[in-house]
């Protein structure tokens, strides 16, 4: 199984901004502190340590701590841990072959970075970063003694030269990129169609079980792993959750029996490489579901066909999730009418659900041709990857869930647009990669060696490595979900979930005021709201109701309404307490006290705030 959970999130505390980050402090130790390990983690660590030691053999001696640090860093992946330990234990003379070969004469950026790396390796103590060395040198030169993260020049600043806004002249190619023509590489790579889908639906309707079953039946997860999960589930009296645990990997989720955060996994059919984003169904975790939906090409809505379950789901997250994904731009929906075993595979029940949901989904803006209804049972596997056994549902001759997923049109990729990656997760403190982020490339391309601009922090960073589907790659393109390893960044502690990595030449503006076209789920009037975009959750308020609009034509129905009724479409003006990276065309969700009140499309961001370097003006 290749998937793993992104757990090393940072919080949104205001204190983060004041945190005086220093590589030498206890930050790293906190993350690896093994007294915080859950019993399952301890067991994985114990077994992993034995396996790594075996794989290393007698010729390579590593301490227990070195092995466990590697296991921790690679999420208990034995092969990667062994590879890492080998790389640090191999004799010195093999090292030069691993050094990157500059394709062009070295830039000042490279020289500064190299000098810093040499200085750091000469001393046993963790030394200053390459940027710090440059900054210190600059401080001496300019006699500026005050620490100011926003103003201090970085090594990348040196590489880009003086320009009006400090950005136009930056040439990514000059500073260590392999100079690949990524679009051409992508076109000749013959990569399979790739599709990311988010799995949504009311709590306990069987989302994780269905995905666990799908991965098991497609041989992504082997029988031994399922048997082990079954034993573990039996031990804590949650036998029926074994398949769900393929996706729900944290002890909190396993003990509570609910998904808390987005879990990611991959599988492949002959035609398509899929990424599953399993979203939590519980209403408390809707923001996590929104973050998942923001990365999806289409959605799988799971509905429990059992008596009363469908009906109670309708009052809960079934409708809310469907409306949300539609408002977030998802057009295609596969409705998995699940737990058909519990409904005795009655065609009447399937038809009843299909009828009610079709009416609702059409109203929510889904085209009939983009919605497929598939009866299935995640628990038994019927009609998931294999057809329903003969005699069980003679009335059904449609596709299996997997065939319905495969019918997805290839997602359009904005390959030539400027780079945009909204940060969905941040990982800090890795041994090899101290700072990494992951997220979907919404637009553009990226390659190792590129320099990216992080908004709203306004920092530049260098891409020191890239992974797609857990494999190291040289490049990534729009539509893929990538892990991006970053180096040479000032103020790394300022990076937050929801920030956007973008092309330095075309940075995303940071805005505090915008107009949006919304579909309201509840009454909307001038009021305080939380504005959600990806992982960003920003406080603000609806400042003005500009107009209500005709649902289909978008024409103004009434100017300056006093209130927007649930189900109506309106144009509203929103002001945020603090700036967030936002562009025309972005999708946002408005929530009040944990309830979604509206969702929609950003139409116009305030021009005054269209600044590259972030912050409010
Ligand atoms: N009878 C039957 N039970 C099922 C089926 N699928 C799931 N279940 C049961 O439903 C319960 C909830 O399953 P989960 O997969 O955790 O549900 P979920 O939708 O992922 O839950 P959250 O992620 O917390 O919203 C478990 O007890 C499952 O065994 C099914 O096809 N048939």
Automatic annotation (TrEMBL):
Any one Gene Ontology cellular component term annotated for this protein: Dom34-Hbs1 complex
GO MF annotations in UniProt: GTP binding; GTPase activity; translation elongation factor activity
Ranges of Basic and acidic residues composition bias in the record: 101-111
Cellular compartments annotated: Cytoplasm
Compositional bias per record (Acidic residues), positions renumbered to this chain: 12-42
Region of interest (Disordered), residue spans: 1-46, 90-163
Keywords associated with the record: Cytoplasm, Elongation factor, GTP-binding, Hydrolase, Nucleotide-binding, Protein biosynthesis, Translation regulation
One Pfam family it belongs to: GTP_EFTU_D3
Main location: cytoplasm
A biological process from GO: cytoplasmic translational termination
Boundaries of every Tr-type G domain copy: 192-413
Catalytic reaction(s) noted: GTP + H2O = GDP + phosphate + H(+)
Stretches assigned to coiled coil: none
The keyword Flavoprotein belongs to this UniProt entry's keyword annotation: no
Matching InterPro entries: G_TR_CS, HBS1-like_N, P-loop_NTPase, T_Tr_GTP-bd_dom, TRAFAC_GTPase_members, Transl_B-barrel_sf, Transl_elong_EF1A/Init_IF2_C, Transl_elong_EFTu/EF1A_C
Biased composition (Low complexity): 112-126
Family: Belongs to the TRAFAC class translation factor GTPase superfamily. Classic translation factor GTPase family. EF-Tu/EF-1A subfamily.
Assembly, per entry: Component of the Dom34-Hbs1 complex, also named Pelota-HBS1L complex, composed of dom34 and hbs1.
Protein name: Elongation factor 1 alpha-like protein
Native organism taxonomy: Eukaryota, Fungi, Dikarya, Ascomycota, Pezizomycotina
